[in-house]
């Protein structure tokens, strides 16, 4: 089974170099770097890594639109998306992915992502955005952080007992979830094409939207703790981050729930 690694890149040259070096030690079949019109494009790396394919976008499309560019180059097998500011921790990942998708090809699989400090990253996977559920989750999560075990029991009742929330209480296990973090995930090319790739109207929360549409096809979203990467936390969004989060949150609720702007403003404020 062909494993193609797609690396969306924007202004992260140093971490990109290290990531390509690591991937060359694995048994992946193809490495594609998708540059989203960086201020300093990785042209020097193209000469250093001739076995990799570099695509230099003529315009900045954002994270989702940039990832869609991979469909110009791949028409079979599995795409493993890894952000350019990631570091690979586990070994033998390509063979692990081949085994996972040989068992079940109709799924999207996210890996374990550590923070820069080496701890499991918060919001590594979870439940779909929901104004009522999210508020309830935050309340119970605060209880867990304060040492209230009854809050943890209630989280278990809802299926929100995420290992990243309280690592000391559970071991990370493979589990079905609503979404997985975009820093490291894999899915069949056919499934990615079937849902039309990312919705480029999103500049944030595009992963939540993609996962929602994938689940609508009947495919599953699964978290696998054996594929481990570390997020080096390069912030390439700058000062637009907060604005994009709010705008994309409303877009998600409007698209999937028909929520009006007036209702959103009442729930979340203007």
Task: Explain what the structure shows.
The protein is an alpha/beta fold and 270 residues long. The protein has helices spanning 13-23, 43-48, 62-68, 93-103, 131-145, 149-158, 189-194, 206-216, 241-257, 261-268; strands at 3-9, 30-35, 53-56, 78-82, 86-88, 107-114, 125-126, 175-177, 179-180, 184-188, 220-231. It has three domains: 3-124 and 170-235, Spore Coat Polysaccharide Biosynthesis Protein SpsA, Chain A, CATH 3.90.550.10; 129-161, no CATH class; 237-270. The protein contains ten helices and eleven strands. Strands 1, 2, 3, 4, 5, 6, 8, 10 and 11 form a nine-stranded mixed sheet that branches. The protein starts with a strand and ends with a helix.
Strand/helix succession: EHEHEHEEHEEHHEEEHHEHH
Gyration radius, in Å: 19 Å
Count of runs of 4 or more consecutive helical residues: 10
Low-confidence stretches: none
Most strands sheet: 9 strands, mixed
> What is the name of the CATH topology of the largest domain?
Spore Coat Polysaccharide Biosynthesis Protein SpsA, Chain A
Any idea of the CATH class of the largest domain? Answer: Alpha Beta
Beta content: 15-25%
What is the number of independent domains? 3
List its traits.
Spore Coat Polysaccharide Biosynthesis Protein SpsA, Chain A, two-stranded antiparallel ribbon, 10 helices, nine-stranded mixed sheet, 3 domains, globular, alpha/beta, 270 residues
SSE blueprint:
Elements: E1 3-9, H1 13-23, E2 30-35, H2 43-48, E3 53-56, H3 62-68, E4 78-82, E5 86-88, H4 93-103, E6 107-114, E7 125-126, H5 131-145, H6 149-158, E8 175-177, E9 179-180, E10 184-188, H7 189-194, H8 206-216, E11 220-231, H9 241-257, H10 261-268
Parallel strand pairs: 1-2, 1-4, 2-3, 6-11
Antiparallel strand pairs: 4-10, 5-11, 6-10, 7-9, 8-11
